[in-house]
Amino acid sequence: MSTRQASYVFLKGHGTENDFVLLPDHDGSVHGDLSAERVRALCDRRAGIGADGVLRVIRLGSSVAPVACPEEARDEPSRREITDTDLPEWFMDYRNADGSVAEMCGNGIRVFARHLYDEGLVPASEPVRIATRAGVKTVTRDGAQFTADLGISTIHGETKVSVGDRTWPALHVVVGNPHAAVLLEPGADLTSVGSLAEEPAYDETLYPEGVNVEFVVRRGPDHVAMRVHERGSGETRSCGTGACAAAVAAAGGVPGRWRVDVPGGTLEVSRDADGRVFLSGPAVIVARGETSL
Amino acid sequence: MSTRQASYVFLKGHGTENDFVLLPDHDGSVHGDLSAERVRALCDRRAGIGADGVLRVIRLGSSVAPVACPEEARDEPSRREITDTDLPEWFMDYRNADGSVAEMCGNGIRVFARHLYDEGLVPASEPVRIATRAGVKTVTRDGAQFTADLGISTIHGETKVSVGDRTWPALHVVVGNPHAAVLLEPGADLTSVGSLAEEPAYDETLYPEGVNVEFVVRRGPDHVAMRVHERGSGETRSCGTGACAAAVAAAGGVPGRWRVDVPGGTLEVSRDADGRVFLSGPAVIVARGETSL
Fold this sequence. Notes:
2 copies of one chain form a homodimer. By secondary structure, chain A is mainly beta.
């Protein structure tokens, strides 16, 4: 790039091909409020770097870091231990490719954790606690596998989604963020759903801020495959919280461990007797550099 | 990325959203033969950096640089002046996103030239001559506009192309590389052609190594719009030699200057009385860094 242009550091990484631009901005001085326009420019796959979303890496105490633990998160049983004195150092400021703000991203937080480990920003041998708009999450590392504790995930009832002129019953599942998971009949071909490039239609009363939609098919006793439309990003190669929603929906709320095949690879989801879900899989950083976008 | 992994320098840039990963490899020691597998990994839009193609920046005299001026290029009138003593310093080693080798890329060479100017690898105020597999090309700079002399472009006859069950007559145009340009009726909607994600069917006897296919519609006296399927890359937001082929086909071989709208922006094509075509438009570098891909 021209040396006359201002530039700043970025990294690119992915988890099962759900890809992200990471923006180190430890004290918030590089990107300030981080405009939706800049997020869109970075995520543009031709004119920009290209990604499903942006992960700003920012200290929780910095002046521009959004509130990490809203009251509703603290009211949840799994969040009650959060106090001002044990808040984590790092906040994952996640944005969708369209520039909108999002609570959480299950693959994103695994890539975010890998970055913190790689850069020596957290101790190498300990689980790392990361603040998000959906509360504090813990990620542990086992070699190249990164497991995120995504908290309590529950089925909240039933809903419907539509693609074109077809409508399916779906389960309303919350995994920090909202999901509508459609269970297709066993043996169904996931391509038969048609294009997920456009956003499926959903109950806007139930999901006033949009919803992630999964189409799920069983492949075996503890094994499902899925496709996903992520709100704000379109169809993606993988969605971590979507994989959790798919497993929780397929299991009907029973604890266990599932293999979840996504178009970009394979994830593992486990759910304990308390309803807490853990998402495991690879997380890689493929590039690091500077951009003037 | 992990500091244990080998990494090398890359840049990302685009011309009217036809995007490229540039690989500086001045003496050929970084990438050697540059495998198709590495090119595919770099161009992967989720697991890699993402691009329509790779531009390796390599000195012509380096041991692994392919032959820049094949005999057939020297036999062409516009190439007769090329001798071993005035070969350019830099060779554009262009690869398609699928890893295949390609002769030339009209947007790519403009981005390549911008990189050489930006890095001070060529004198700032002079046109730069660049060796390609389709012969030596000259690029000139006027502010943010980069104009590539793409040599003689001529209509070689008629052919046909098909998308799904529809077939159109097309003109066989050579602009260093082969094109089949379909002239739609005036006022036609370019989206009516349907998806260009899959390769259109073409005459494999005429194009044994594949062909770039343009769908072209007039917008005014010296103004066309187009969509393109690039061999090896799929539908792209822009194709420089494709824009030239579209203008030459629309003009029926008459000299002039055309505005060519592509999905990713606007290019200008001029053709002189000798049949030489010049492609003008923006070229930008958006990022520079290191990758372990």
